[in-house]
Amino acid sequence: MKKWNLVFGFLFLLAFLATGQYMRRVFLPEYSEALIQRMQIRSNHIYLLFIALLNLLAAGVEVPGRYKWSALGSGGARLLLILAGCCMLVGFWNEHDGNLTHRTYTRLGIFASLGGVSLLMLIKWGESLLPRQQNE
Q: Which residue from 18, 66, 86, 112 has the highest number of Cβ atoms inside 10 Å of its Cβ?
């Protein structure tokens, strides 16, 4: 699963660069009078960079997997980080209408990234604190 975080981390980094070019060439400041829309699209752009970097960092985190729950939890945490980036991409394209209360994909992406990082940290620390199993 680590390799998927690496692959998606680079894909999200490329998407960050592409969305930057979109904002530079298409979503021009002079065409948008609504400052809230500009804030929404720019925030999703930065969130995409944030999640790309989180995926690249997660690819470097080694979880030994001595316990069954740690292997399952690590896979779930890594999947949450990938899903967070997908949610941010959808949010970038669909959630810049000026309504701050209807940013469902952005909210899901933020919570997924928080959950993925928290779960990965808890598993990493939990494995280092717990003694090794005797039947290994």
A: 112
